Amino acid sequence: MKQLLLPLWAYRYFILSSVKTELRSRFARSKFGGLWMILHPLAQVLVYALILSQIMVAKLPNVSTEYAYPIYILAGVVGWTLFSEVLGRCLTVFIDNGNLLKKCLFLSWHCH
Predict the structure, then answer these.
(1) How crowded is residue 7: how many other Cβ atoms within 10 Å of its Cβ?
(2) Buried b (16+ CB within 10 A) or exposed e, 63-88
(3) 6-48 pLDDT per residue, tens
(4) Burial tier of 5 (Cβ tally within 10 Å: 0-12, 13-18, 19+)
């Protein structure tokens, strides 16, 4: 386990700066910036909760509070959004940053 964590520790500044650069470039042209990451799922939940709980009268079994269904939907939407964003970005991150990866000297380690 130590052999897997040492390269991460050695390149921690590169990793942190890459994450900062990714977030800055992702929201550079957005009017709301990083706030959009929070507003978009909340807007989706608001629409789903309004339509499903008010118009279609969907409720959770054995729960009497009116806020249970929107919280239930929020958990699902936020979880799915996080999963899909991470998976989608993982597919392209190495291709998009290939020029940076070519400049790094990676330590090789062997699994025993």
Answers:
(1) 13
(2) eeeeeebbebbbeebeeeeeeeeeee
(3) 877 887 887 788 788 877 877 777 777 778 778 888 888 888 8
(4) exposed
Name the residue type at position 53. S
Which tokens in the block code for residue 93? 């991150």
Q: Where does residue 49 rank: exposed (0-12), middle (13-18), buried (19+ CB within 10 A)?
A: buried
Closest-CA residue to 76 (of 103, 104, 52): 52
Say what the pTM is.
0.57
